[in-house]
Specification:
The complex is a heterodimer of chains A (99) and B (182). Chain A is 56% helix and 19% strand. By secondary structure, chain A is α+β, with helices and mostly antiparallel strands. Chain A has a single domain (6-95), classed as Arc Repressor Mutant, subunit A (Orthogonal Bundle), CATH 1.10.10. In chain A, β2 and β3 (68-75) form a beta hairpin. Chain A is elongated. The N and C termini of chain A lie close together (11 Å). By secondary structure, chain B is mainly α. Chain B has one domain (30-181). Chain B has helices at residues 4-50, 55-76, 88-107, 112-134, 136-155, 160-181. In chain B, α1 (4-50) runs antiparallel to α2 (55-76). The chains are: A alpha+beta (99), B mainly alpha (182). At the A-B interface, α2, α3 and α5 of A face α1 of B.
Chain lengths: 99, 182
């Protein structure tokens, strides 16, 4: 019986992973774009991205575009797999196989 | 473990964010296209205003570079990895321009002022209709430019091409930049 992924299950982390998973493989989202999409604050978003990065679900790249720092977050293959399993588990719960 | 109601809520959150990402990506591409057309239209209107005899060359050039730019955007940003170019995109433009020329040159014989009004409104009609499916920004930009074009047609005299440079060209550029911020 599949278990929900504790790292992904937190609402904001679920939104972050859903947003990154909707992109083509290897494509990432800028921090500011992610902030707008999720409606999170800078600090909250940063903390949750760090949790996802520690779990190996996302990579964080920092670069300078001109003089402006730009942070890009990308889902890893591990993260995409974990997200797919998490969604499958949610669907199983709705179908009444669990819970 | 969570119950099925909480699981449904989580899936609804996922669907919502996926839609927002797709909308955001669409606006990003549409923004580039709008700015590209805006620059071309601004330049062609200025040419029409300053050197009217060259307008006959400027507008076909806008059409060719405009459509070429859109095709390039689509090829560089395929809807999914490995997607081939969809020839229907070109056919849409062939039909669009064929119907436009049928109206302006065959059924009617429009003068420069009528042409300068018809094409932006015709273009913006499709823009607004597409917006009913793809997002309110298209509708707002389409209706806004159409309304300002009609104001120019009825109330602006000799300076109509200059008005259209700012209304149509400038409107598309500003609209495109606005889309990036939504």
């Amino acid at each position: 019986m599949a278990e929900l992924d504790d790292v992904i299950h937190q609402p904001l982390r679920l939104k972050i992973m859903a947003a990154l998973n909707a992109l083509p493989v290897a494509a990432g989202l800028e921090f500011s774009r992610l902030k707008k999409l999720t409606g999170a604050t800078d600090g909250n978003l940063g903390a949750h991205i760090e949790t996802l990065a520690k779990a190996g679900y996302v990579t964080v790249e920092k670069a300078f575009v001109g003089k402006k720092p730009q942070t890009t977050v990308t889902a890893t293959a591990t993260g995409r797999g974990a997200f797919a399993r998490h969604v499958a588990t949610l669907q199983e719960i709705i179908a009444g196989k669990q819970g | 473990m969570i119950n099925s109601r909480e699981a449904s809520a989580a899936l609804a959150d996922i669907d919502d964010i996926v839609q927002r990402v797709k909308q955001s990506q669409l606006y990003e591409l549409a923004s580039l296209a709008a700015v590209w057309w805006g620059v071309l239209v601004f330049a062609a209107n200025l040419v029409t205003w300053l050197w009217p005899i060259y307008a006959v060359y400027a507008w076909p050039a806008v059409d060719v570079f405009g459509v070429g730019g859109l095709v390039a955007l689509r090829v560089l940003n395929p809807p999914h990895r490995g997607a081939s170019f969809d020839i229907r995109l070109l056919l849409v433009f062939v039909l669009f321009f064929a119907f436009g020329y049928l109206c302006t040159d065959v059924i009617g014989h429009f003068g420069p002022r009528q042409l300068g009004t018809f094409w932006p409104i015709y273009f913006m009609l499709f823009y607004s209709m597409a917006g009913l499916w793809f997002g309110y920004a298209f509708v707002a930009i389409g209706l806004g430019i159409s309304a300002l074009t009609l104001i120019g047609f009825f109330f602006i005299g000799e300076a109509f091409p200059l008005w259209m440079a700012f209304v149509n060209g400038g409107g598309l550029i500003l609209g495109g930049l606005w889309m990036r911020r939504i």
